[in-house]
Structure formats: structure tokens, C-alpha cells
């Protein structure tokens, strides 16, 4: 029986065992510019409990994909303007777990095979057999459910072992995670590099939770947030009376992280005089509190992170080369978000779920046009900035779908920037460009120097030096 014969379907059973068939077996989008074929396929599937939406053009199918979350997409390959391959691509971008099955005629089997290579789970040759259609749809949904269950299992295992916050499926990120898995159980020093907001602290946590030290503490220290006078005390501790204000004995971060892991964020901001003492600790495994002559043995794994080029600091004489090589036995580099844009849809879905629960909002989806705008934005603040943007959108949203009008104004402005803006800076000295950029960023964040430094990918102390250098307040 062919789905072209709609009247034959009316004799099919609507009930089983005297009870109404469950209508919740899956939500399916059928995209076919042959209306009779599309509606016949819909009727055939709805009679056995599936729920179906029908689009009679590729453009209509794209629009419907942006508005609802489907479990399965059935699409004809050959259509005018927007064809089945475009439907396949859009469906996968919106929902990585959606199953896509393509219709094809005998003359386009090669195209169907190409669709399989690009992620379709099956193809059907027209005219369709009703029972064959139902069986293949059931099989496709079972396959996709298995994929989803396996992914959930991986996420649960990753959560147990510390990789729960690292979201993405890009090749560059997979390489980072694989490297982390290889070195996690060793005690080698690791230097994590990357711009602000790329997730360096998450990588440090993952390395610790996958290490043999996971039952001992991971102790963080942001070196850029401390004055040069406090860094040494925070690292090594001090004795009572060691300096003005030292009214009691204090253990340092090295002692607190004994037999665990010490994470030094923005390690490039450590003062030179403290670098000498840090190098000595890495060489002999002993620290000495400020104001004491008694060495204390410590067993600490050191993980460091920086958003600057330490090689440049070495040339400037502000960082010791010998310490640099002790810190970077293994280097893990995190790519900026603009270099792994294919991870943006996954991050969007994650943050939408997180903030809709946190703020008790009914948000479930985001418009395709809004996703396109977010994909084209430069993301100077990387994942941290994306997270703040999504939270902002969720909070101001009025319904279950995030729309273009929910986007913050700076995202629209970033989208509107063109190459003309870049050409206008040609011939301008780099120092002047830097001054203008810092000033514009400060204006954007209402003078918040910490946030401006984060967006620009520099440490807070570097930002303070730049402000002083350019006379900005």
C-alpha cells in the first residue's frame, strides 16, 4: 500500500485493545512540496500514535524547525529553492539529537547516500510503503534515543569525574579533553593558556578531579587580584608579627593544598621577587613562611593559567624563563569561542536550560535568526560573555522562545560592525588603537575595570597599568 492512497488509511485501526493509541510517541516534521504525499505520510504515522507537522516547502520547513523541537524530520531531497540537504543541515544545527530521514526517487539515490554521510539516519525511496514507512520511522527514533541515552551516560560519567562543565563537540575542544585525560593521573605541572572566559578554571578542575589527588583539595589563587605585597603571604603563609598587620600565624595556599592541587590563575602577574621563591619550591618541594626560617615540606601538584603571552613577559624581563619552563611541562591551550563556533548551539541549549530553571522562566527554545546573530558575533569575552548574554535574554523574555528582540544592544552593534570599521584604523599607530579600544570597552561596561579587562582578555593589573599609561580614569 502506498501513502499516495489516503483513503485506504481510513480503514486502519485507531485503537488497540479497546484503548486509544498513545499520541506521544514522537513529534515529527514532514517536509515535502508534494502536498498529497506529505499529508498521506502524516496520516499514516498519526494513525499509529505519532504526532506530525507538515511543511509543503523547504522554506516553511526551516521556519517550523526554528519554532519547535522535533524528534524526527522526514524531508524530500529534491525541492525548489530550499532542498532536503539544507533541511538536514539546519535541523542538525538546531538540535544535535534530531533524527533525519530523507525521501528520494530512484534517480537521486546518490544524493541520498550523500545525505547519510552528512548525518541522516536513513533514506526511503518513493513511492513509500505504509508499513515500511512506519517501521523505518520507529527504527530511526530508537536509534536516536540510543544516541541520546549514551550521551546522557557520558555526561553523568563526566560529571562524576570532573568534565561536566566542558561543553562542546568541536574538533579543537575534543583534542583538549583528550589531552587532559592523558595527563590527569600524572603529577606534571600544567600551564593552561587562552583568552579570558574560555574556561581555564574548568579545565583545572577537570584535571584535579581526574587525578589521583581527587580526594584532597583543589586550592585556587587568582594572582592578578592581589597586590604584590600580599601574593607571597597568600602562597607561603606568614608568622605572627612578620609584618605590620600580621597579628596571627597564617598558613599559605601551598600548605592548604598539601597532597592536593594548587591552581594559580593569571600566573603571569606574580611579582619577580615572588617568582624566585616559587621556583625554589618547585625545585625542592619546601616552602618557608614569611617571617620564618623553618622550611616546611609540601607535596603539591601545580596547575597554572594565563591569558597573556608569557614569552613576551620574558623578553620584557618581567617573568623568569626558568620558572616558565617549570610551569609548562605540559601546555593546554583553550581556543577562543570565535574559533569553535559550532559549539555555540550546544552552549546555548545548556545555558537556556540552566537559566530557565534558575529564574523559573518557561524558556525552551531560541529563534533561528537569533542563533545566526549570536553565531556571527565576535565574542571577545568568550563563553563567559555568552553565558551572561543568555541569562540576560532569559530574564527579559516574555514567552517560551528567545527572540531577536531579546538580544542585548551590544550584540546588535557587534553584528553591524563591518570591514569598513577595520579599514578606518589602517595607518593608525597600534598604541592609539589600544587606547581607543580600552576606552570604548570601559564605556560599554559603565567603567567596570574588572569586566573590561575580562572582555579584552588581559589581567586586571595589566588593565590598571594601561589606564595609568593612557591617563584614563
Which descriptors would you attach to this protein?
about 475 residues, Rossmann fold, 5-stranded parallel β-sheet, Helicase, Ruva Protein, domain 3, alpha/beta, 20 helices
Would you kindly provide a brief summary of this structure?
With 473 residues, this protein is α/β, with parallel strands linked by helices. The protein has 20 helices and 18 strands. The protein has helices at residues 35-46, 58-67, 84-94, 109-117, 130-161, 171-183, 200-209, 228-236, 253-256, 272-284, 310-316, 321-327, 344-358, 368-376, 382-396, 409-416, 419-423, 430-444, 449-456, 460-470, and strands at residues 15-16, 19-20, 27-31, 51-55, 72-76, 99-104, 122-125, 190-193, 218-222, 237-238, 250-251, 261-265, 286-288, 295-297, 301-306, 330-333, 365-366, 401-402.
Topology:
Layout: E1 15-16, E2 19-20, E3 27-31, H1 35-46, E4 51-55, H2 58-67, E5 72-76, H3 84-94, E6 99-104, H4 109-117, E7 122-125, H5 130-161, H6 171-183, E8 190-193, H7 200-209, E9 218-222, H8 228-236, E10 237-238, E11 250-251, H9 253-256, E12 261-265, H10 272-284, E13 286-288, E14 295-297, E15 301-306, H11 310-316, H12 321-327, E16 330-333, H13 344-358, E17 365-366, H14 368-376, H15 382-396, E18 401-402, H16 409-416, H17 419-423, H18 430-444, H19 449-456, H20 460-470
Amino acid at each position: 500500500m502506498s501513502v499516495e492512497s489516503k483513503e485506504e488509511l481510513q480503514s486502519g485501526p485507531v485503537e488497540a485493545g479497546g484503548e486509544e493509541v498513545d499520541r506521544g510517541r514522537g513529534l515529527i516534521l514532514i517536509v515535502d512540496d508534494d502536498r498529497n504525499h506529505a499529508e498521506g505520510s502524516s496520516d499514516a504515522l498519526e494513525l499509529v500514535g505519532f504526532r506530525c507537522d507538515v511543511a509543503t516547502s523547504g522554506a516553511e520547513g526551516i521556519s517550523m524547525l526554528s519554532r519547535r523541537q522535533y524528534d524526527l524530520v522526514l524531508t524530500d531531497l529534491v525541492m525548489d529553492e530550499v532542498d532536503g540537504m539544507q533541511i538536514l543541515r539546519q535541523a542538525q544545527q538546531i538540535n544535535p539529537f534530531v533524527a533525519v530521514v530523507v525521501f528520494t526517487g530512484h534517480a537521486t539515490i546518490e544524493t541520498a547516500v550523500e545525505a547519510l554521510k552528512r548525518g541522516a539516519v536513513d533514506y526511503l525511496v518513493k513511492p513509500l510503503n505504509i508499513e515500511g514507512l512506519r517501521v523505518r520511522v520507529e527504527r530511526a527514533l530508537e536509534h536516536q534515543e540510543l544516541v541520546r541515552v549514551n550521551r546522557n551516560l557520558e555526561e553523568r560519567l563526566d560529571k562524576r569525574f570532573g568534565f561536566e562543565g566542558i561543553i562542546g563537540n568541536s574538533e579543537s575542544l575534543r583534542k583538549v579533553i583528550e589531552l587532559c585525560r592523558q595527563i590527569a593521573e600524572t603529577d606534571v605541572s600544567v600551564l593552561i593558556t587562552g583568552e579570558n572566559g574560555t574556561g581555564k578554571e574548568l579545565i583545572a578542575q577537570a584535571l584535579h578531579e581526574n587525578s589521583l589527588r581527587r580526594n584532597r583539595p583543589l586550592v585556587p589563587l587568582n594572582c592578578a587580584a592581589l597586590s604584590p605585597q600580599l601574593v607571597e603571604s597568600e602562597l607561603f603563609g606568614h608568622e605572627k608579627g612578620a609584618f605590620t598587620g600580621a597579628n596571627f600565624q597564617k598558613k599559605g595556599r601551598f600548605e592548604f593544598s598539601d597532597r592536593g592541587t594548587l591552581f594559580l590563575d593569571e600566573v603571569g602577574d606574580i611579582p619577580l621577587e615572588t617568582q624566585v621563591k616559587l621556583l625554589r619550591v618547585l625545585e625542592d618541594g619546601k616552602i618557608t613562611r614569611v617571617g620564618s626560617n623553618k622550611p616546611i615540606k609540601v607535596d603539591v601538584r601545580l596547575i597554572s593559567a594565563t591569558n597573556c603571552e608569557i614569552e613576551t613577559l620574558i623578553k620584557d624581563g618581567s617573568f623568569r624563563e626558568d620558572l616558565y619552563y617549570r610551569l609548562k611541562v605540559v601546555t593546554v591551550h583553550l581556543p577562543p569561542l570565535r574559533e569553535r563556533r559550532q559549539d555555540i548551539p550546544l552552549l546555548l541549549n545548556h545555558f537556556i536550560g540552566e537559566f530557565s530553571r534558575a529564574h523559573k522562566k518557561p524558556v525552551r527554545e531560541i529563534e533561528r535568526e537569533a542563533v545566526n546573530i549570536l553565531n556571527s558575533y565576535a565574542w571577545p569575552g568568550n563563553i563567559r560573555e555568552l553565558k551572561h548574554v543568555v541569562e540576560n535574554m532569559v530574564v527579559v523574555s516574555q514567552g517560551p522562545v528567545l527572540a531577536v528582540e531579546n538580544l542585548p544592544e551590544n550584540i546588535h552593534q557587534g553584528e553591524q560592525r563591518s570591514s569598513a570599521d577595520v579599514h578606518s584604523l589602517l595607518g593608525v599607530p597600534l598604541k592609539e588603537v589600544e587606547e581607543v579600544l580600552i576606552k570604548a570597552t570601559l564605556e560599554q561596561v559603565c567603567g567596570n575595570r574588572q569586566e573590561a579587562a575580562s572582555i579584552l582578555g588581559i589581567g586586571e593589573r595589566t588593565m590598571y597599568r594601561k589606564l595609568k599609561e593612557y591617563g584614563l580614569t
